[in-house]
Automatic annotation (TrEMBL):
InterPro entries: MMPL_dom, Mycobact_MmpL, SSD
Location, primary (coarse class): membrane
Record's bilayer topology term: Multi-pass membrane protein
Cell compartment(s), UniProt: Cell membrane
Family listed: Belongs to the resistance-nodulation-cell division (RND) (TC 2.A.6) family. MmpL subfamily.
Transmembrane segments annotated in the record for this chain: 171-189, 196-217, 229-251, 272-293, 305-326, 365-385, 525-542, 549-570, 582-602, 614-639, 645-665
Pfam families the UniProt entry points to: MMPL
Name of protein: RND superfamily putative drug exporter
Entry keywords, A to Z: Cell membrane, Membrane, Transmembrane, Transmembrane helix
SSD domain: residues covered: 231-326, 552-680
């Protein structure tokens, strides 16, 4: 025994040392992910989108593609000569900034005389450095002075503000996530020692995932953006802590039955690993279904998050067990489990009482909880998925938002960010006239051959490239508004009908339109595929068909109830204008994949106990021994996703809130009451058509007789 124990200890030491070496190599990459992140919406469009084709054509009309920063000066009492001199001086300094494409067009005065606008083209090749260029613009303007307000807005200003937000991922988000997990582990374990093991393993998982994501993004295999990076952080720590809680709970049980830690871990690993692997595999496969998306951003999130879960599984099933074996019973101090052969249900008094309550009132419980969840789904009528406008994108005021509002007050709101129309030279005049007649289009002008150094010349010849002309349509509405998107759709219909024009419409608003359309298409394709994949995995794990169908039905009900409740909260409590078009798909993938996790944890243990005790007794035993750990895991995951609220972006706050609420509903209501009550009420038939349904049916019939 001692020989085998000594060998097991040496193996555990070797595993820990090997992982520490891996962590030392991969750790630095966790702080370098922002270096390979891209946050340009256009880069994520499908290649066959009209806005993508327009962007390719635009590259032929300019030496360098640019993204405009709009510097707007406002004085409600009227722009003065001193203001004009200041604007001219600022513009001269703007032209000296590396990355700014010169010559700059002249300042554009508003018709009411209260504002001046300078369009500063920034080289699109600057990438993430566009943020630094915009910061230099803001430093030069110096902010508000003597009643003259100054803001830097436009697409470049918005991108700079987004880059600034996502820069918080490597610091504040990671720190908040770590603190949240630490606090919950201290509460759950009430041990000054045990929390170290899962937190260290989760950190190792994040480091391992980071090195693979960094290398793939650096090689341009995947396009990492700030949103995917933030989700990777909370997903690894949340899911990793979940898997650790499940393994540690089973290990603690086995320490009551084994004299030595390595024997307890061997049995605990065999019991917990299949459920952990099935759970992680379900999440990985569900995330990889995002590869079916037409949006590059979604296709990137799938493998990035899947890599995170795969790394977490590997670490939690190797590094964590080795740490726990080395820690032995001492790791649980001051409540060290003894080898006393105690029934594991004895340590779960509260959940044993919950199991007894389920046994006495099974049918009323599942009917009541199902009705309550169904009522919450009524809130879905308040969910209106849309493309969030620039002023609605952030949870706090930003310079780009303030600037856009100033522009909307004094100019056609689309000034500086026009829609681009590409058409043949022969049909250019007709297309321009048709475009002008579209409601919501304020002005249409051709792109001329020479640089613009003075007021626009209406008689200047248009620039012709390969027989095509570029027209610029200024929209009456802000470029990120619903009104602008309606105008783009109507504009496309109008110009596409011009015979021989072969017209293509692009620009900032068109990118939003195509992104929204692609997101809706993705929902219709990916959601059914995820459901089929999960059903197959559950059927293989539980060796039944009825149980997987019922489990998926409960998770779908939980998902719909969550979205209904969130819709009410977003509209009437948080006062959000709506949800982004990508929200329903992301919420579905994370809530369903993660929600089914807890059902896997529960039902795999129920099946194990049913083999020994019969189905109904197995349901009660499974609920009693897993109730505490699964609820703790749900609270951890909910808390880690709620950490996304530290990033002041409405879309991430909404996603974090939805996952947190959904996980809590799933662990507290669905997994603790609805599923056990339903399984208890149905009895052995829950395993239909598997052999267990017949064996348990005969056993329970004999017991009843």
């Amino acid at each position: 025994m001692s020989g085998r124990g000594g060998k097991a200890t040496l193996i555990a030491v070797a595993v820990v040392l090997a992982w520490l070496v891996i962590g030392g190599v991969s750790g630095p990459y966790a702080g370098r992910l922002s270096e390979v992140a891209t946050n340009d919406n256009a880069a994520f469009l499908p290649t066959d989108a009209e806005a993508t084709r327009a962007q390719d054509l635009a590259g032929e009309f300019v030496d360098r593609q640019t993204i405009p920063a709009l510097v707007v000066y406002e004085r409600p009492a009227g722009i003065t000569d001193a203001d004009r001199q200041r604007v001219s001086a600022d513009a001269a300094r703007f032209a000296q900034i590396p990355g700014v494409v010169t010559p700059l067009p002249p300042p554009i005065p508003s018709d009411d005389g209260q504002a001046l606008q300078v369009v500063v083209p920034v080289d699109d090749a600057e990438g993430e450095e566009i943020g630094a260029v915009v910061e230099q613009l803001r430093d030069i303007t110096g902010g508000d002075r003597d009643g003259l307000t100054v803001d830097v807005s436009g697409p470049a200003g918005l991108l700079a503000d987004l880059i600034k937000v996502f820069s918080a991922i490597d610091g504040p988000l990671l720190l908040v996530t770590l603190v949240v997990v630490l606090v919950i582990l201290l509460i759950v374990y009430r041990s000054p020692v045990l929390w170290i093991f899962p937190l260290l393993a989760a950190g190792m998982s994040y480091a391992l995932a980071s090195v693979f994501v960094y290398l793939l993004a650096d090689a341009d295999v995947v396009k990492l953006n700030g949103q995917a990076q933030g989700i990777l952080t909370v997903l690894v720590f949340g899911a990793g802590t979940d898997y650790a809680l499940l393994l540690i709970a089973r290990y603690r049980e086995e320490l009551h039955r084994h004299d030595r830690p390595w024997g307890a871990m061997k049995t605990a690993w065999k019991g917990a690993a299949p459920a952990i692997i099935a759970s992680g595999g379900t999440v990985i496969v569900s995330l990889l279904c995002l590869l079916l998306s037409s949006l590059n951003s979604n296709r990137a999130l799938g493998p990035v998050a899947a890599i995170g879960i795969a790394a977490t599984l590997l670490v939690m099933l190797t590094f964590l067990p080795a740490l726990l074996v080395l820690g032995g019973r001492w790791a649980f101090w001051p409540r060290r489990p003894r080898a006393d052969q105690a029934d594991p249900r004895a340590e779960h008094g509260i959940w044993s009482r919950v199991a007894g309550f389920v046994a006495r009132h099974a049918r009323p419980i599942w009917l009541t909880t199902a009705v309550v969840l169904a009522l919450l789904t009524l809130g879905l009528t308040q969910l209106g998925a849309t493309t969030l406008g620039q002023s609605d994108l952030f949870t706090q005021r930003t310079d780009s938002v303030d600037g856009q509002e100033v522009i909307a007050r004094h100019y056609p709101a689309g000034t500086g960010s026009p829609a681009t129309i590409f058409t043949t030279e022969q049909t250019a005049r007709q297309v321009a006239q048709v475009a002008t007649d579209v409601p919501g289009v304020a002005d249409v002008r051709p792109l001329t051959a020479g640089p613009q150094t003075g007021p626009p010349d209406p008689n200047a010849a248009p620039k012709v490239v390969d027989g095509r002309v570029q027209l610029e349509a200024t929209l009456a509405d802000p470029p990120d508004s619903d009104g602008a998107e309606r105008t783009i759709r109507e504009l496309r219909v109008a110009v596409h009908q011009v015979p021989g024009a072969d017209a293509v419409v692009g620009g900032f608003t068109a990118i939003n339109v195509d992104t929204s359309d692609a997101a809706k298409r993705d929902q219709n394709v990916i959601i059914p595929v995820v459901l089929v994949v999960i059903a197959v995995i559950l059927a293989l794990l539980l060796r039944a068909l009825l149980a997987p169908v019922l489990l998926i039905a409960t998770v779908l009900l939980s998902f719909a109830a969550t979205l209904g409740l969130c819709a009410l909260l977003f509209r009437h409590v948080f006062d959000f204008p709506g949800v982004d078009s990508s929200f329903p798909l992301f919420a579905f993938v994370f809530l369903v994949a993660l929600g089914i996790d807890y059902n896997i944890f529960l039902m795999s243990r129920v099946r194990e106990e049913s083999v020994k005790r019969g189905t109904r007794a197995g349901v009660l035993a499974g609920l009693a021994v897993t109730g505490g750990v699964i609820t703790s895991a749900g609270i951890v995951l909910a808390a880690t996703f709620s950490a996304l609220a530290v990033l002041p972006l409405v879309v991430l706050v909404e996603l974090g809130t939805a996952v947190a609420i959904g996980v809590l509903i799933d662990t507290i209501i669905v997994r603790s009451l609805l599923v056990p009550a339903l399984a208890y009420d149905i009895g052995p038939k829950i395993w239909w058509p598997g052999r267990l349904s017949r064996a348990n049916g005969e056993r329970e019939a004999r017991g009843a007789g």
